[in-house]
Each structure stands twice: as C-alpha cells, then as structure tokens.
C-alpha cells in the first residue's frame, strides 16, 4: 500500500514536472514570437521614419517659426564632477529657443557653489508657479550673462521632486528631462521636438534613444567619436540598449503602446505633465509611472494624444561596469516595474486604454514581470525533470535551444537593425564584436540579470524603496 | 507544442541566418563605398570649401561617373544648407554645371519613394527656380510624402503664387495638421489669406487653433480683426491662442479686445494669455487694468499681469506703486519678484533711494511680503542705494520667503 502511494506521488511529480516543462517551453515560444513581432514593427517604423525625415529636416526645424521653446530640466545631486560642463553643453545645444532649469537637490558637495561661481548666478526672488507640490525650495538663482539658465536650490527629496521643482520654474510649453550625467547630441533636441511641430495638439511626450557612452570619446560635453566599450559588462549593455530602444520602443510607438520614455531623455508638454501632478515622488520607476499616468489621462479624457518614440535623437549615458552596480540598477528597475504595474493594475487588459491596455501592459506583465520567474523556473525544472526522467533529453535540449536561441535571435536582430538603419558603430570590426556579444550575452549574463529581477520583486514585497548609487568612472567632460 | 517550438526554432534560425548574410553583403558594399568616398569626398569637400571662401580660383573638377556625382550632390546639398547669399548662388550654379539638375528632375519619378523625396528636397535646397513647375507636378503624385517634400521645396523657393495649389494638394490627416501649418508659415505673408480662412472656418477644430498661432508667428497685421473677433466670440482654447497671437503681432488695435478678455469672467488661461499679450503690446494705458489683474485670485493671471507690468517699464512700476492699496502682499511680492528675475528691480531700489516715495512704499511693502534677495545684493554696494537697501533690511526680517512651498 505504502509502495503504491510512493509510486503514485513519484508519478504525480513526474507529470507535474513534465507539464511545467511544456508550459515553460510554450511560454518561451510565445515570448520569442511576440518579441519578434515587435522587432518587425520597429523595422517598419524606422523605415517610415526615414521616409519622412530628410537630410535637411533638422535644419528646417531649426529655422521654423513654429518650433516651440523648450526648457531642459536637470536634477543634480552631488554632481560637482560633471555639472558645469554638462550645463555648458546644454546651453550650447543647437536649438532656437531653450532655457536650462537645473535643480540642486540638496547636494552635500560643491555642486551649487560651482554653478553659482561658473555662471555668475545670483539669488532672485522669482515667484514659483504653485503647480506641482515639492519639498522646500531654498532659493532661485539666475544669471545676467546666461539669461536662459535658472537654478533651483531645494532640500533633498529625490530625483522626481527635483524635476518637479524644475517644471514649476520652467517658462516654456515643452519640457525636456535629461540626466545630469548624460550627454545630449547637439541636434538631439531638434529631432525630439519635431513631433510637437508636426502634430502639436496630438503629442504628449517624445522619447529618444539612449546609447552607451562608455568607449566613446567625449570633448567639451559632446561625443566626438563613437566606439565600443572595453568592459565586458558595458558591451553586454550596449546590445541590451539596442534591443530595448531600437527593437522594442520604436515598435511599441508605432502601435501606439509606448509605455516608457526614459528619464534620461524625454520631452513632454509641460501642461500635460503638470495636469497629472508631475513625477510621483514615492515611485521607484518614476519615468515609467509618469508615462502610464499620461496614457491614463489621454484615454480617460479622450484627447487622442500620444506618446511617441523617435529613434534619431540620441542621448549618451554611462552604464555601470561593476556587477554590483548593475545588479543594484536592475534591482531598482524591476521594483519600479512591479510598483507601476501594481499601481495601475486596473489598466491591464482594459480595452478602455486602447493598445496600452490590451497590448503593452499585458505584454509587460507577462514577459517583463512574470518572465523573470518563468525563465528561472525553467532553468530549475527542466534539469530536475531530466534527472527524474520526467522529460527526455531531446525535450531538455529543445528547451535550452529555444531559451538561448530566442535570446540570440532578438539580440542579433537588434544589432542588425542598428547597423542597417543608423550604423553609429561604423567599423566593420565593431559589427562583428556586437554580433559576438549578442550571442555571448545569452550564456550567463542574461541569467544573472534574471536573478536580479527576481530579487527585485521580493525586495519590492519587503518594501525596499532604496534608489541605490552607481559608481561611475565619469566622462572626460572638461571644457 | 513541441512541434510548434521546433518549427519556430528552425524558422527563426533560418531567418536569422538569411538576415545576417544579407546584412553582411550590404555592409561589405557600404564598406567598399566608404573607402571610395574616403578617397574622393575629403578632397572634393576641401576644394569646394576653398572655392566658396575664395582661396581657390577654380571649382572642384567635374565629377566623373555616378559615384562621384552622388558624392558631389551630397556635398553641395550639405553646403547649401549652411550658406546664404552669394555663396548659395555659387553652390546652385555648381549644381547646374555638374549636370545634377536633370538627374534630380528624373528622380522625381523614380521607383523608390526615398529617391523621389530626396530629389524634391535637393531641388528646393539648391534654390533652383526652374524646378518650380516640376515640383508643382510632384504635388499631384500619389505618394503623400513626396507631395509634402515638393511643398517644402516650393516653400524654400519662395513660390508664393503656388501656395493655394500646395495647400490643396496636401490634404493632411489630423496628425499632419502641424506639418501643413509649418509649411504654410514657410511661405510667409502669402499664406495669410489661407490661414485667415482657416480661422474663420469650421468652429472648434484644430485647424483654427493652429491657424491662430501661425498668424501670430507671421506677425500678420491683416489678421488683427479676425483674431480679435475670435478672442471675443470663440471657444476658450481658440480665444487663448488668438490672444497670444495678438500679442505676437503687437498691434494696438487689439488692445480693446484683449482688455475685455482680461476683465472678463473667462477661464484663467484665456485671461492670462490676454494679459501677456497686453504686455507684449506695451500700451501704458492698460497699466491700470493690469494692476487690477495683478490683484486677482489666479496665480497664472497674476504672473502674466506682473510680467506685462514689468514690460511696461516705468509706467508699470508707477501704476503698481500708486495702487498698493488694491494689492495683497502676495501680489506685491509676485510683481517685485518678476522685476527681480527680469533684472529691473535695482532701478526701482535706486529710484526709491533717490527719494521717490511711491517706490519707497513699494519696496518696503515688498520687503514685508518676503522680497529680500535684491535688497541683500544692493546692500552690499557702496552709495545711496546700498545704504537705502541696508536700511530697509534693518527694519526686520521678511515676513516669509517667497520660495517656500
């Protein structure tokens, strides 16, 4: 009797393992097809984009009388190493009318002092629009030599709060958010603002592509030559950014389902951002969360407005080169994802929210959020099933082939898309390196990131809201 | 399921292999072309630049073959985008001399859409007046992107007489209305009748909104009456845009309509736009009304009024100083804070230090309302103004800091 029971339990376990294995395999197949569909949508979108954008398009925007003024909002916390050249680069962007609003978010280093000294700032009693509530503002500084520069000094309350303070002092109808340590290409703003000229009353926000600055040569706050990073981790991230921005966001934008405009570089209508109360100070993934609230408002009020991704304007950013920093970053990103999905769970699968409700949010829930668990489960279940005889060797090989090859397929597709459309890495050798990285990242790197994402979820459940810091080597931004 | 997975795997792997192979072939071709360009382009570019600035007497040699022609065309286009006046004429004449006009004309009917569009743009960028009829033909093409490209080139060529034809050919979607307006604005004054027609068209549409903005950008004095009518009678969104446009035009005939809007019970954004426009027109006669608006409830209306009064210069300051009884502390601080940000508060302090009692009252009232930064700056200076500022500061701390939330 006991032997029969043990036999039944063993068979049940085997059956469960086999069913789980089939489920994971099906999931990976579905995932691959879905990502492939998005990549194809991106390719179509990029083709259309090039048809509409000519070589003189940016010059036209520069000279057009309809080009709107823009305020570039920068949040700075302990950025003494890079803030001055960063502001200088922003002030010299190729754009007809722009101001730069920098918020010193209670830095404990010499950030504020350096800016005051370098740009001849003086404290003024400029009234602040009571648009979005923020932490205490200690002072506003303006400069006679640089009338289009304004600095807000406030007590520390995080990046979201700092950007909200910058939005409150912004005078332009369009605001652009840029990380203090990122580098915007001189024509980047022109390209990003173009949709606001073409469809001024139908555009809420525009995101541009973020590329990896490690390995590039930077002078006077501008990227003067593009190169691949030497560090292996940064190389992996180079391909990853191509996949995320070029092969995914472009496609989502075409489907009117773009969920994220990166906080490192995004352009928005100021009145729309104020109407949704700016960045949520208590959110971990504040850029993602803001976009979802903007989508919600657009659909609730039936404005017909859209969030778009333009693959041309480039912002360069330094990525972590230490595993610990990368882990912290991904940990935070996943907590941000879970937090935002949970806050807006009523929109998931809700046809009221159009493509965002029925396509993008379910996709993010199924693949970006649950994907980490299902992938991890697959790596555990299939080997155990193989050991216990629940799955056979061909099945296990098929699983790993699908898991690995799907990743390679998507990464290679992103690299090829980049090469065919933009070719920012012009040397043939770079292309081979990127293709090799697209293959190699699926053996170890991807799995490690999966673990960070799983850990991020459990940290979120524990209520961990730490931002974390990334040790950066810093650009050579000296003027 | 397993079969599906295997199928997906094989199809994906095959697709990957084919795409990679195609990409490599393409890349190799590009690499070879790049090497050829590396030999020809820098030399041609340097010769062209030297010829344009006058340090070389002869232009670059005639390009030989299709490859050199295409490189030279790109070079001339990039130069054309960055030069003006006589140099632009030289670039255009080289474009003709190298026989690039006829290929561009032919390319307007090329099979590839991108080739057609680039050809249309090249003809416009080069300023080739003889291309106007060809571009007008292009307006009738099925390819809407080509129609837009031809329209842009016609605008660049200043073909004002073609503006109605251009507008008729565009038939923009809702998402392209901005593009259409941008294009029409490119034609300058010639587009004003069309834009006024839009403004008077079907009520409530985006066309009206954009037309109002465009008329403002064009400083269309002939549109003052229809814009004033729109401000008086249209919906709030159009009224606000009409007010901003009237401000840009800066015509005194619009003052009455703007004043009515400021004094009305309409939403804050209409009143703020109208107050801002009065500031742009800078008619001292409106100072009293702007002080009244400065005393209002809405922050944005007060802000617009404060900026408008600052733009009125001495007349604005005098109007505020005379009617301090009407204004709350917040309004006074908002006005002086705006003056501070605009860099004119020092003049007010200097006049107050010189014995102007109205301005003295204004500064002291402002200090009680929280204005201190400018006084602290001036107090650090020698002279009468410095002593005056120090004296005002010594009367006690500011009631509250303006910048507190």
What does this structure look like?
The complex is a heterodimer of chains A (479) and B (405). With 479 residues, chain A is an alpha/beta fold. In chain A, 54% of the residues lie in helices and 15% in strands. Chain A is built from 14 helices and 12 strands. In chain A, strands 3-4-5-2-1-6-11-8-12-7 form a 10-stranded mixed sheet, with helices on both faces. In chain A, strand 1, helix 3 and strand 2 form a beta-alpha-beta unit. In chain A, helix 1 crosses helix 7 and helix 11 (354-388) packs across helix 14 (445-461). The mean pLDDT of chain A is 89. Chain B is mainly α and 405 residues long. Chain B has helices spanning 2-53, 65-82, 85-97, 101-107, 113-125, 132-138, 144-156, 163-170, 177-186, 192-199, 206-217, 224-233, 236-249, 255-263, 268-281, 287-294, 299-311, 314-322, 329-342, 345-353, 357-368, 373-379, 384-394. Chain B starts with a helix and ends in an 11-residue tail after the last helix. The model of chain B is unreliable at 400-405 (pLDDT under 50). At the A-B interface, helix 1, strand 3, strand 4, helix 6 and helix 12 of A face helix 1, helix 2, helix 5, helix 7 and helix 9 of B.
Short description:
Chain A is α/β, with parallel strands linked by helices.
Shape of chain B: elongated
Distance separating the two termini of chain A: 83 Å
Instruction: Give the spatial strand order of the biggest sheet of chain A.
Output: 3-4-5-2-1-6-11-8-12-7
Output mean pLDDT of chain B.
88
Question: Main sheet of chain A, how many strands, which sense, barrel?
Answer: 10 strands, mixed
């Amino acid at each position: 009797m006991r032997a029969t029971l043990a036999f039944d339990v063993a068979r049940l376990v085997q059956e469960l393992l086999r069913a789980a294995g089939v489920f994971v395999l099906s999931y990976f197949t579905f995932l691959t097809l879905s990502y492939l569909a998005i990549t194809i949508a991106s390719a179509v979108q990029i083709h259309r984009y090039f048809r509409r954008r000519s070589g003189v398009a940016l010059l036209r925007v520069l000279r057009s009388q309809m080009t709107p003024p823009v305020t570039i909002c920068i949040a700075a916390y302990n950025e003494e190493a890079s803030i001055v050249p960063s502001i200088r680069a922003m002030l010299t962007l190729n754009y007809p009318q722009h101001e730069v609003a920098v918020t010193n978010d209670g830095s404990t280093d010499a950030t504020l002092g350096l800016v005051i000294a370098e740009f001849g700032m003086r404290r003024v009693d400029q009234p602040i629009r009571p648009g979005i509530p923020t932490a205490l503002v200690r002072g506003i500084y303006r400069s006679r030599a640089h009338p289009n520069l304004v600095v807000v000094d406030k007590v520390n309350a995080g990046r979201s709060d700092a950007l909200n303070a910058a939005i409150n002092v912004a005078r332009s109808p369009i605001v652009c958010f840029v990380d203090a340590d990122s580098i915007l290409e001189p024509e980047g703003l022109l390209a990003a603002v173009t949709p606001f000229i073409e469809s001024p009353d139908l555009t809420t926000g525009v995101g541009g592509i973020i590329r990896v600055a490690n390995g590039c040569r930077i002078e006077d706050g501008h990227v003067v030559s593009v190169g691949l990073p030497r560090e292996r981790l940064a190389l992996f991230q180079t391909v990853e950014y191509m996949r995320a921005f070029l092969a995914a966001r472009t496609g989502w934008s075409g489907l009117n389902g773009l969920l994220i405009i990166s906080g490192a570089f995004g352009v928005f209508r100021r009145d729309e951002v104020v109407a949704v109360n700016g960045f949520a100070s208590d959110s971990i993934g504040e850029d993602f969360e803001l976009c979802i609230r903007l989508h919600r408002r657009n659909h609730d009020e039936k404005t017909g407005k859209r969030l778009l991704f333009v693959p041309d304007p480039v912002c360069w950013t330094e990525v972590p080169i230490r595993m610990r920093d990368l882990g912290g970053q991904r940990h935070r990103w996943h907590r941000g994802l879970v937090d935002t999905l949970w806050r807006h769970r009523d929109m998931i699968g809700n046809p009221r929210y159009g493509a965002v409700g029925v396509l993008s949010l379910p996709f993010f829930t199924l693949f970006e959020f649950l994907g980490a668990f299902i992938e991890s489960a697959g790596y555990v279940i299939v080997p155990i099933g193989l050991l216990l005889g629940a799955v056979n060797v061909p099945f296990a090989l098929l699983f790993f082939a699908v898991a690995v090859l799907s990743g390679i397929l998507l990464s290679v597709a992103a690299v090829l898309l980049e090469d065919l459309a933009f070719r920012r890495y012009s040397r043939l050798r770079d292309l081979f390196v990127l293709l090799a990285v697209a293959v190699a990242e699926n053996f170890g790197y991807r799995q490690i990131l999966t673990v960070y994402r799983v850990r991020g979820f459990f940290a979120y459940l524990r209520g961990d809201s730490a931002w974390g810091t990334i040790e950066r080597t810093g650009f050579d931004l000296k003027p | 399921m397993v079969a599906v997975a295997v199928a997906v795997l094989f199809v994906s792997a095959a697709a990957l292999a084919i795409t990679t192979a195609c990409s490599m072939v393409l890349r190799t071709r590009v690499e070879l072309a790049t090497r050829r360009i590396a030999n020809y382009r820098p030399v041609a570019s340097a010769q062209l630049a030297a010829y344009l600035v006058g340090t070389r007497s002869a232009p670059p040699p005639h390009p030989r073959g299709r490859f050199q022609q295409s490189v030279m065309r790109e070079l001339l286009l990039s130069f054309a985008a960055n030069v003006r006046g006589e140099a632009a004429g030289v670039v255009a004449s080289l474009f003709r001399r190298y026989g690039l006009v006829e290929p561009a004309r032919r390319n307007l009917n090329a099979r590839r859409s991108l080739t057609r569009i680039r050809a249309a743009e090249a003809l416009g960028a080069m300023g080739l007046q003889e291309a106007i009829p060809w571009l007008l033909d292009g307006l009738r093409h099925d390819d809407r992107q080509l129609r837009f490209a031809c329209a842009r080139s016609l605008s660049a060529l200043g073909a004002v007489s073609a503006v109605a034809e251009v507008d008729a050919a565009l038939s923009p979607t809702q998402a392209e209305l901005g593009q259409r307006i941008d294009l029409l604005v490119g034609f300058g004054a010639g587009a004003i009748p069309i834009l006024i027609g839009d403004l008077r068209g079907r009520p409530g549409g985006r066309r009206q909104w954009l037309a109002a903005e465009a008329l403002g950008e064009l400083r269309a004095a002939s549109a003052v009456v229809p814009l004033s009518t729109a401000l008086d009678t249209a919906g709030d969104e159009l009224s606000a845009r009409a007010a901003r446009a009237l401000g840009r035009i800066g015509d005194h005939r619009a003052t009455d309509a703007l004043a009515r809007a400021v004094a009305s019970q309409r939403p804050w954004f209409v009143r703020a736009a109208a107050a801002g426009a009065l500031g742009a027109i800078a008619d001292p006669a409106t100072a009293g009304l702007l002080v009244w608006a400065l005393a209002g409830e809405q922050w944005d209306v007060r802000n617009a009024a404060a900026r408008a009064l600052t733009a009125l210069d001495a007349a604005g300051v005098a109007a505020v100083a005379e009617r301090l009884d009407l204004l709350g502390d917040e309004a006074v601080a908002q006005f002086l804070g705006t003056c501070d940000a605009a860099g004119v508060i020092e003049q007010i302090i200097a006049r107050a230090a010189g014995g102007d009692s109205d301005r003295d009252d204004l500064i002291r009232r402002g200090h009680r309302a929280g204005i201190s930064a400018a006084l602290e700056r001036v107090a650090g200076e020698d002279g009468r103004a410095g002593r005056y500022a120090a004296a005002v500061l010594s009367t006690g701390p500011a009631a509250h800091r303006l910048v507190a939330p």
